[in-house]
Amino acid sequence: MIFEIKNLAELPEVAEKILNFAENSPKVWLFQGEMGAGKTTLIKALGKALGVTDTIQSPTYSLVNEYISPTVGKIYHFDLYRLKHETEAYDFGIEEYLDSGRYCWIEWAERIPNLLPADCLTVKITVEDEKRVIDLFSY
Known about the structure:
Blueprint: E1 2-5, H1 11-21, E2 28-32, H2 39-49, E3 64-69, E4 73-79, H3 87-91, H4 94-98, E5 103-107, E6 121-128, E7 131-138
Parallel strand pairs: 2-5, 2-6, 4-5
Antiparallel strand pairs: 1-7, 3-4, 6-7
């Protein structure tokens, strides 16, 4: 499934469509895109669509943030950009999060390719001219 966003005002509607499309998809989502493509911005919109009232921000320094949704419960948001080795993910217990059955939204998942479950949903964001193209596909 492919979505195009030409301005931020479209993002809430696209977030709802993504959640509806991915309703029966795996709970581990891999967000791909260059720096500044809008990964965290999309995650904010997805969280808001799920009723998260906490401030959603990139967990660059903490590596993982936890949010509570009144509809789906806990959501885990990872930013693995700073990881130098996969073993660092073990140090903070990533396998427990991935096995939790909860949404795990992971930015920079390519840093831990050997730790990811076999069934993931990939959310690839590409910047094209003045728009963002969001492509969803199973891992």
